[in-house]
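Collaborator request log, item 7. Partner lab (contact: R.S.) asked for a structural prediction of ABC transporter ATP-binding protein to inform their binding assays.
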Amino acid sequence: MAYIEMAHSFKRYHMGDTTITANNDVSFGIEKGELAIILGSSGAGKSTVLNILGGMDTNSEGQVIIDGKDISNYTAHQLTDYRRYDIGFVFQFYNLVANLTAKENVELASEIVKDAQDPVQTLIDVGLKDRINNFPAQLSGGEQQRVAIARAVAKNPKILLCDEPTGALDYNTGKQVLQILQDQSRKKGATVVIVTHNSAIAPIADRVIHMHDARVKSIDINEHPMDIKDLEW
Ligand SMILES: Nc1ncnc2c1ncn2[C@@H]1O[C@H](COP(=O)(O)OP(=O)(O)OP(=O)(O)O)[C@@H](O)[C@H]1O
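Returned to partner:
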């Protein structure tokens, strides 16, 4: 069984008399240490998958096995622990706390787990040695996203989930952020899942899960993922 295994997962939203099926019989596996990209156009159901994998939402039906445990059966309390200890999340618009410095933003996360990485070292690792005591408003978009990545990885999560992490960034800054995410997988052994509508970045992934209209349309394995420096879009 794969490290992450979503099996026949459905997510239905009920709005009055209508039911929206955001995920329709979604099944895929992701191996430990892989960089996986979930690719699809707007409304395909990608964020729904990511939120369910991250324990921020629950599915209506089907299994969500993470490291051998089915989180779809978890209680609210178990899901809180799961989000706290096992998951790092990176959002499109960074979601940093505006009145805390870069270091303090990372500490917010590192202080709630037992075996966290050192916040300063984590910021140095993402190239922010000279920005440690700056507030988010003093940082560029790319730098803010790097703080957000440092915050996510400082907890040593089992899985790093990223929702359109380069969506608000320009081309070169986006590539730098992708490089950091690919390094998390290649050099640190983290399992990284990126949701995007940008098909140009698919070649950097070990596995590409194509979604359309709430379903998985196909899954591609890249035996030789492209280096970010060779990527063009
Ligand atoms: N809380 C909700 N209540 C009702 N419908 C929802 C809710 N969340 C998502 N949906 C619907 O589910 C479908 C899938 O949404 P989802 O956000 O997963 O797509 P997506 O592929 O991530 O799109 P985008 O790239 O635009 O974020 C959409 O039709 C959306 O309107």
